[in-house]
Predict the structure of NodB homology domain-containing protein.
Amino acid sequence: MFKGKKDLIGIGAVLYVSISLISCGGGMNTQAASSPQDSISLIDSPEKVLDTVRRTDGLLTKRWKEPVKIVQDTLHPISQDSVAKLVRFERRRIKDSVRRALDSKPKHIYFTFDDGPLLGSKAIDSIVKSRNIRINVFLVGKHAFMSKGLKRDYQRYYDNPLVECYNHSYTHANNKFTTFYSNPVGAFNDFEKNEVDLKLEHKIVRLPGRNIWIYDDVRRIDLQSGAGTADLLYTNGYKIFGWDVEWKIHGLTGKPIQSVHEIYTRIRNYMNNKSSMEPNNVVLLMHDDMFQNKKGQQLLTSLIDTIQMNTDYKFEFMRAYPFRY
Ligand SMILES: [Zn+2]
């Protein structure tokens, strides 16, 4: 692995601003030129040139995530104001073009269901079979061993090739999150027990009560108290995934907190605005117990149908996350 120096030069495009351009009347001439001696130029590092050869090089994603770096020509200083204006203008121009480019690439939706097996799991399992979509379940071992019925529901998930089973801890922190995370080794052991007892094949976890992401080059922590546990898991080969959008339905009544239309619109906005953790990838969080009631189950079917009829989003396993273009 080549980390460090190489990454620094490889990230995004470096924008050179030469001052001659602005000092002549302060105009916003933004034409790209071919060398740093010219007004503005976009320099590609050798690493990026290599990247473009690969199938999905991730270059657009890099450009989207990394702000354009502005390097001033110190021999010809210009006013801070002019630089700031130019920087804003250039960033917007580049973001717009990257967004258009990303829009032409495939888009990926990840349905994730937490806390199963629970009442609702069986219905989820049969709905995904009927619609033939891939889903992800983050399982709690304790629930699987609470009754014969739930054990069967776990087994149903486990045997369904459209469902991938991941780790949401054995005890779900007994819903005492701060206490649970105050002992990272204890919490880590709880995840390991879950992995063994549920025979989980993938080192992919979601932390109970925390929207934390640690994978590849990403580390995002929502609440600091979970960070120690998340880091320990990551160091031991796990990927930690949070979510972009959450859908809530009252489990007992099937009454939605957000209607199908609302949640569908939200997903579309995230996809179009590239405001999810990874552009063109949106992770939706739901909970198994939302679908214990017929009404709730109809809403799930309706959301899937709406997405399938109106978009070309691909339903994916978290194992494949993220697709970077
Ligand atoms: Zn949970």
User: Anything to note?
Assistant: Residues 108-320 form a domain with the TIM Barrel fold (CATH 3.20.20.370). The chain has two domains: 5-103, 108-320. Residues 1-54 have pLDDT under 50 and may be disordered. The first strand starts at residue 14 and ends at 17.
